[in-house]
Design brief:
This protein is an all-alpha fold. Helix content is about 95%, strand content about 0%. The chain is built from 2 helices and no strands. The model has no long low-confidence stretch (mean pLDDT about 95).
């Protein structure tokens, strides 16, 4: 592939990665809030509810982390091909 295509792949994957990072940050704040409320409350019913919400948020974070790692591998691959194409173009 040529240099422009690889640069566009890098741009798109970096945008996707920042979007996932924002979602992970938002979910981690929610998980922290629910574990804090779980520890703070006295009622067993509310404790269970906050514990379940915390568990759901952490499961969502784990799923997003898998996507995050997959995007990182794609980004590394396209970065290497971009640098190779850049070197190849400057040789000519």
């Amino acid at each position: 592939m040529n240099l422009i295509h690889e640069a566009s792949y890098l741009y798109l994957y970096s945008k996707k990665l920042t979007k996932i990072n924002r979602e992970i940050k938002k979910l981690s704040k929610k998980a922290h809030k629910h574990i804090h409320k779980h520890n703070k409350t006295k009622s067993e019913n509310k404790k269970l509810r906050h514990k379940l919400k915390h568990k759901k948020a952490t499961e969502n974070i784990k799923g997003l982390m898998k996507k995050h790692n997959h995007l990182l591998t794609k980004l590394r691959h396209h970065y290497l091909t971009y640098s190779h194409a850049l070197k190849k173009e400057h040789k000519v």
